[in-house]
Amino acid sequence: MEFQVKRQKKHTILVADDETEIVELLRLFLEREHYRVLEAYSGREAWHILSQEHVDLALVDIMMPELDGFQLIARIREKLRLPVIIVSAKTGDVDKVTGLALGADDFISKPFSPIEVVARIKAQLRRYYELNEGRPLVPGADQPPPSRTVCGPLTLDHRACMLYKRGEAVQLGPLEYKLLQLFMGAPGRIFTKRQIYEAVWNEPYFEDSNTVMVQISRLRDKLEDNARDPRFLITIKGLGYKLALQGDDFR
Fold this sequence. Notes:
This is Response regulator. This protein has helices at residues 20-32, 43-52, 69-79, 93-102, 114-132, 174-184, 193-200, 211-223, and strands at residues 12-16, 36-40, 57-60, 84-88, 106-109, 148-151, 154-157, 162-165, 168-171, 233-236, 240-243. By secondary structure, it is an alpha/beta fold. Helix 1 (20-32) packs across helix 5, helix 4 crosses helix 8 and helix 6 (174-184) packs across helix 8 (211-223). The longest helix has 19 residues, at 114-132.
């Protein structure tokens, strides 16, 4: 399927939910903030819109007909790079972890405050477009990143936001790309959870946050030959994480 994407002057939000009242409510609040809103009432309809339109962020319900939210997110991550926020009444830990593991960037429980949803959308868009503008992610960096960063068998293409591992392309989500850009910008350096969170998410770190661990685990699933025995992205017990590079091979 070819994706014919045309960028709009204002951000476009896709609201995918089979409940008409929720879609209309979110449309009302989003249009007040001058967003362009597209509506989908099934996962299949949402996927069709994503394949034809430029969408800056997707709000996705889990329980949708034809193609559920989890299946939709998996397809999005195979083809597209955009922030995805789950908005769902399925609030169990398994549902949240599954959604995040598939590539969602945030999870909002129903019932929700529309004002909070708008605030979360603004936060995700801010992070995403700061990344695309070439904002340095390594603390202290004052130059935009080169078109490519090479660390042994890993090549990170910053223009395509694509990883090449021993020449083989690996598709990355926005946060996975940001994490890998941070580590590959300083191979061998140990980054604490706080440093990682504040560099990648660009907001204060909370000590009880599991967000960094979840994203590290997701990145390892794509980066490592065996995620249970990582050779690229190493945990330094009690300190944090580092990209362990030694010559052309890893540990």
